Amino acid sequence: MPRTQRNDNFIDKSFTVMADLILKFLPTDRKAKEAFAYYRDGMSAQADGEYAEALENYEEALRLEEDAIDRSYILYNVALVHASNGEHDKAIESYSMALDLNAKMPQCLNNMAVIHHHLGSLAEQRGDADERDRCFDLAADCWTKAIRLAPNNYLEAQNWLKSSGRGSADVYF
Question: TPR repeats located where (predicted)?
Answer without folding.
Answer: 35-68, 35-68, 72-105, 72-105, 120-153
